[in-house]
Design brief:
six-stranded parallel beta sheet; 16% strand; Rossmann fold; 2 domains; 273 residues; binds D-glutamic acid; 10 strands; four-stranded parallel beta sheet; 43% helix; alpha/beta
C-alpha cells in the first residue's frame, strides 16, 4: 500500500516568544514540516493570570490555528499545558493537541538525576503538574518546585544573559545554589534563554535540562503514529503570527529561534480584523 503523507502545517503556540525554542528544535528534527506559529505577545505572560483567563486565551489560540488548517497543535507553553490542556481537549475533540509537560518529565527522568529542582511560571508550579508527572514515573525521586515569575518578562525583553537576570536568579535560586540539585528542569519554554546565566550561576555544577528537543521527538512520534507526517524531503515554510509587535521584535525573536523569523504578521484574537 502507498504510504500516506499529510503536508498540512503544524500549529504551535505560546503566550509569547518562548515557544520559538520548540519551533527551533522542531525545525531541526522535522525539516519537511510546515509550521504556523502564534505568539500571544499582547497578553504575555500567561503565568501570572488566573486559570480562567489562561483557559480563555488558549481557547482563542487553538481556534485561530485551526482556522488556518493545521493538522495538529503543539502547546509550546508549560503554563497552558499544565492548567488548560484537558479543557482544550474537551472543547476541540477532533484537534490533535500535544502539550509539553510529558516531554519535560521524560527529559528530567532520562537525565538520571535523583534530586530535581523544577522552575516555571507561578501557574505551572501551582498546578504541581511536573512533580506529579515525575512521581508517576519514579516516586523515589526528590522534586522541588520554584516559581520564577520575573523570568518570562526578562526573556521577552532579550535580557536572558544580563546582570539583571543574575540578580533575579539570585532572588529565586539563592537557596538552591547553597545546596545544588543534580538537575534543574526548565519548566517554561522561555527559560532556555537563561542557560548561559544559569551555568555561570551554578558554576557548571548543575545539569540544566530543557525539554525542547524531547518535545520535538514527541511530535515526530505522534505524527508517525497518526499518519500525519509530511512527505520526507519536501521543502518547508513557516509563518509567524503575533498579537502585538514592537520595533525590537525581530531581534528579540531571533534569540529564541536562532534565526530571524520570516513572514511575521500581527493579528487580533479578540477583535477579528
Ligand atoms: N513560555 C511559557 C511557558 O512555557 C510562558 C508562560 C507565560 O506567559 O507565563 O510557560
Amino acid at each position: 500500500m502507498a504510504e500516506q503523507f499529510d503536508n498540512r502545517p503544524i500549529g504551535v503556540f505560546d503566550s509569547g516568544l518562548g515557544g520559538l525554542t520548540v519551533v527551533e528544535a522542531m525545525a531541526r528534527r522535522l525539516p519537511a514540516e510546515d509550521i504556523i506559529y502564534l505568539g500571544d505577545t499582547a497578553r504575555v505572560p500567561y503565568g501570572d493570570k488566573s486559570v480562567d483567563s489562561i483557559k480563555r486565551f488558549s481557547h482563542q489560540d487553538v481556534d485561530f490555528l485551526l482556522q488556518r488548517g493545521v493538522k495538529m497543535i503543539v502547546v509550546a507553553c508549560n503554563t497552558v499545558s499544565s492548567v488548560a490542556l484537558p479543557a482544550l481537549k474537551r472543547q476541540f475533540p477532533a484537534a490533535h493537541l500535544l502539550g509539553v509537560i510529558d516531554a519535560g518529565v521524560q527529559a528530567a527522568v532520562a537525565s538520571g538525576a535523583r534530586r530535581i529542582v523544577v522552575i516555571g511560571t507561578r501557574a505551572t508550579i501551582n498546578s504541581d503538574a511536573y512533580r506529579r508527572g515525575i512521581h508517576a514515573v519514579d516516586p523515589s525521586l526528590l522534586v522541588e518546585s520554584i516559581p520564577c515569575p520575573l523570568l518570562v518578562p526578562l526573556a521577552e525583553e532579550g535580557l536572558g544573559d544580563s546582570p539583571l537576570a543574575e540578580a533575579v536568579l539570585e532572588l529565586y535560586l539563592g537557596g538552591v545554589r547553597a545546596n545544588p540539585p543534580d538537575a534543574l528542569l526548565l519548566g517554561c519554554t522561555h527559560y532556555p534563554l537563561f542557560k548561559a546565566a544559569l551555568d555561570r550561576y551554578f558554576a557548571g555544577r548543575v545539569n540544566i535540562v530543557d525539554s525542547a528537543t524531547a518535545c520535538a521527538e514527541y511530535v515526530a512520534e505522534y505524527l508517525t503514529a497518526n499518519a500525519l507526517a509530511a512527505m520526507p524531503g519536501k521543502k518547508s515554510q513557516s509563518r509567524f503570527f503575533v498579537t502585538d509587535m514592537h520595533s525590537a521584535f525581530p531581534a528579540h525573536a531571533a534569540r529564541f529561534l536562532k534565526r530571524t523569523p520570516e513572514r511575521v504578521e500581527k493579528v487580533s484574537l479578540e477583535f477579528p480584523e
